[in-house]
UniProtKB/TrEMBL annotation:
GO terms for molecular function: hydrolase activity. Keywords: Hydrolase. This is Alpha/beta fold hydrolase. Residues 29-114 form the SCP2 domain. Residues 148-388 form the AB hydrolase-1 domain. SUPFAM superfamilies: alpha/beta-Hydrolases, SCP-like. It comes from Svornostia abyssi.
Length: 419
């Protein structure tokens, strides 16, 4: 078969998938609609397409975008056709280097969820907003099986769990949550933004999704939130997977300065320079080269776009302040409370984590000796991004063991409650 005929065949297959998009829009409660302009660059065919979501449909047009796109997706025709058919997931293509994304990653994921796969085997992705009290919380769900809720870290969003969530979705029903104040969730100007407040919202999301109990996975601040949820509602948490969790700092040399740094200052007009955000992002990795430059660029731009909102800046500063100022000891200190945790927990630390060093494991061991502790060599602060395969393997085995032991734990909880 000639090169020209192969090219023509690929072009025809891609165009067929693109033209069918308006007929495959999911509606009702299955997706949260987003108005966006998406620029599609088909690198091997030299084509460009514009996808404009508006008025509960997708307008498909060949040619360059007429407006500034919210997201630019670039890949070869075979990869993009597989994505549209549901044969491949967007995060798979990004990780494999077959597709790049610039702009809003969340918009790209939401668009993927809005379109019903043509014939592919991938689990359907649901994007929705649930209301917990006065707040609107964005959730991305996929897969089938026991429920797993993933909670992101400070300044991040559910997109930091995309690859891990995709890997776990083969065995679990995975829910990626944007905490209030972050990502696509609402941002109250006046809120506690501490672990108990966030934990109540995570449990509230479970209520709204009718999840009786779940495994919780949390990274950094999300790990602290997961611990709090386990302390507040142990009967609803089967197991905790804690990835470099933000446990209480024992030595806090900047404590007086942080106490004086009021989160209300976030409402004052100012921006965070791109170089600072990029440097901070790369510092989370033992090997900065482990993250694709195009993906890093998209994460940096998404963060900067979000932080242009005064309310988002105030939420970031408030949450950071609460984490740093949490008392480690005393009657209501973090570590004495950690000793009361009844939920099985596995702590995964990074050997090269400069933000929450693996040395914190010794404090956890002192107060919670039954917890599993694992240090990943050559890993920084985000194990789910830097070592997704190994992290998935560890969590999968731990959760399977916890599921098998759940009846025994349920009887133990009843005895404790009776006492």
């Amino acid at each position: 078969m000639s090169v020209q005929r192969v090219s023509s065949k690929r072009e025809g297959a891609l165009e067929q998938e693109l033209r069918s998009l308006p007929e495959r829009i999911t509606g009702g409660d299955r997706a949260t609609w987003v108005d966006a302009c998406v620029h599609l660059a088909v690198v091997d065919l030299g084509q460009t397409w514009e996808l404009r979501t508006r008025d509960n449909t997708i307008h498909v047009r060949r040619g360059p975008s007429r407006e500034t796109p919210h997201v630019v997706l670039a890949g070869d025709s075979a990869a993009l056709t597989g994505l549209l058919r549901g044969e491949m997931a967007g995060i798979e293509l990004i990780v494999d280097g077959r597709m790049t994304v610039r702009g809003s990653i969340d918009t790209a994921v939401t668009l993927e969820a809005m379109v019903r796969p043509d014939s592919g085997p991938l689990p359907t992705i649901d994007v929705q907003h649930v209301h917990v009290g006065k707040e609107r919380v964005a959730v991305l769900s996929s897969g089938t099986g026991p429920d797993v809720v993933c909670i992101h870290g400070l300044g991040a969003s559910r997109t930091s769990f995309l690859e891990l969530g995709h890997r776990l979705a083969g065995s679990y029903r995975v829910h990626l949550v944007d905490l209030p104040g972050f990502g696509a969730s609402s941002t109250p100007v006046r809120a506690a933004y501490d672990a108990p407040w966030f934990a109540d919202h995570v449990l509230g999301v479970m209520d709204q999704l009718r999840i009786d109990r779940a495994h919780l996975v949390g990274n950094s601040m999300g790990g602290r939130v997961a611990i709090e949820a386990g302390l507040r509602a142990p009967e609803r948490v089967t197991a905790l997977g804690l990835l470099a969790p933000a446990v209480a700092f024992v030595r806090r040399g900047f404590h007086p300065l942080v106490r004086l740094a009021r989160p209300e200052l976030g409402v004052l007009p100012h921006g965070i320079r791109r170089g600072i955000v990029e440097k901070q992002l790369l510092s989370f990795f033992a090997d900065p080269g482990a993250i694709d430059p195009a993906l890093a660029d998209a994460i940096v731009e998404e963060f900067r776009t979000r932080q242009r909102s005064p309310a988002a800046r105030a939420a970031l500063y408030s949450a950071a302040r609460r984490i740093y100022l949490e008392a480690p000891f005393g009657r209501d200190g973090f570590y004495p409370r950690l000793a009361q945790l009844q939920v099985p927990a596995m702590f995964i630390w990074g050997s090269h984590d400069r933000l929450v060093p693996a040395a914190f494991a010794r404090h956890v061991t002192e107060w919670m000796p039954a917890a599993q502790q694992i240090v990943l060599d050559g890993c920084g602060h985000v194990p789910q991004v830097e070592h997704p395969e190994l992290t998935t393997e560890l969590l999968d085995g731990f959760f399977a063991h916890a599921d098998a032991a759940r009846p025994m734990r349920r009887r133990r909880l009843r005895r404790v409650a009776a006492a």
